[in-house]
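Hi there, hope your week has been kind to you so far. Do you reckon you could talk me through the fold, stretch by stretch? I've dropped the whole record in just underneath, so have a look:
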Amino acid sequence: MSLREPRETVNLAELYEQELMPWSRAQEAVGSGPLGPDVAAFLGTVRLNGRPHSAGVGPAEHDGHIYFTSGPGARKARNLAENPACTLSLRLPGIDLILEGEAERVLDPATIDQVAAAYREGGWPAERDGDALTAPYSAQSAGPPPWQLYRLNVRTAFGVALSEPHGASRWTF
């Protein structure tokens, strides 16, 4: 996710005579801070042998970017270490949003502190511990702390409207 405007927008719903869906609709649906437990969010990565892997994550928006965490031994972190290409699929109010790009491990202490604060505002008591996050608890499948922080550098996004006005668009950044 990025607050920057896409360099190209394609209407994927012309067949149904739907109007072009603006990027602002996706931005508004994401909002700011943690997306919360009511938002279905799945990170797609690729194993070394080419097989896909998908895992639920708890993303947060901060300063125009989407962040997520992973334990260093988790399959998603191991996959990203070998191949940072990934997708993040989100079911948001009024829109399904798929983000494609590369995940980048965040090591900057100030950014980790800021994203931890965003997670705390959403109810997860995350704190920076060196170059990662820790908390008294996380998702049952997350493994033990610390959890590494990743920023998704979005290259392409796809949106399908679930409510009026309907539409579907692809945005390239």
Observations:
- The radius of gyration is 16 Å.
